[in-house]
Specification:
alpha/beta
């Protein structure tokens, strides 16, 4: 595996890879790699001739009071995991490499899809995501790009961006990878102390209960969200940001009686750590 730090070097590698007729898989990450990222890299390696993983803590998707400076950075570990999973290149640019101009060029997906859920309390987040991912798509020219279902809203936003801007690639959304007790793998899990870590399992338990109720025939969206919120509130350390249901793929308001696929998503704080999780209610 080659560690690449500059745009120019990455572009040269991509040019040669394309010239050789090889397909490229891209896995955009912010580093602090865990088993969830590993599953994405493994899938990219299996489905493409050449795999590029980006490892970049993107400053433009963090708000002024968010955890940019504290976000975990584990480059040595990331190199080992990426190489083990089959990455050919680990791209680790500086902010200056990715944002060379003082006056920014932005990519922004508008509408309800970026205003609900995390977009409601993180108003600049998805503009930063769309901008950096569009840069990565232009730099790497991937045939397929891999994202995790845990970041379900992000995946839908990027699918819209790819469709609207005619990027010639496929977005692959891979299943959530969980700890043995059900907690979704996340780079932010390291912020949790032992008590908060134990408490956070309530998220997957509540979502699992709602999905089971849906499978058993419950179609009332208000009842399903109330079921999840009520169960999460049984955990004293939980501080709910949202428990909401939206139609897929556009994240339009939920049907009162669900007849199409919907996303049931939660964001909850434990101490100072905000965690997200979701399930898809498939009709």
């Amino acid at each position: 595996m080659k560690l690449v730090k500059t745009v120019a070097e990455l572009q040269a590698i991509v040019k040669e890879t394309k010239k050789a007729g090889k397909s490229i898989g891209l896995v955009p990450t912010m580093g602090a790699l865990h088993e969830g990222h590993a599953s994405l890299i493994k899938a990219a390696h299996a489905e493409n001739d050449f795999t590029i993983v980006s490892d970049f803590v993107n400053p433009t998707q963090f708000g002024p009071t968010e955890d940019l400076d504290a976000y975990p950075r584990t480059l040595e570990h990331d190199c080992e995991l990426a190489e083990k999973m089959g990455a050919d290149v680990l791209f680790v640019p500086s902010p200056k490499e990715m944002y060379p101009s003082r006056d920014m060029t932005w990519v922004e997906v508008t509408g309800d899809i970026t205003k609900v859920l995390c977009g409601r309390t993180r108003p600049i987040h998805f503009r930063g995501v769309a901008t950096v991912v569009s840069k990565l798509f232009n730099l790497t020219q991937p045939d397929k790009a891999y994202f995790g279902q845990k970041d379900a809203q992000q995946a839908q936003v990027l699918k819209r961006m790819v469709k609207d801007l005619f990027f010639p690639l496929e977005i692959r959304v891979m299943p959530i990878i969980r700890e043995t007790d059900g907690l979704a793998k996340s780079s932010r899990n390291v912020y949790l102390n032992a008590t908060e870590r134990k408490a956070a399992v309530i998220l997957s338990k509540a979502l699992t209960k709602a999905k089971a109720a849906f499978a058993a025939g419950e179609r009332d969206s208000a009842k399903l969200t109330a079921m999840v919120a009520e169960m999460i509130r049984t955990e004293p350390l939980s501080d709910i940001d949202y428990v909401e249901i939206y139609q897929l793929p556009e994240l339009a308001p939920a049907e009162a009686t669900i007849t199409t696929d919907h996303l049931l998503a939660v964001a909850v704080k434990f101490g100072t750590t905000r965690l997200i999780d979701n399930v898809v209610l498939e009709v």
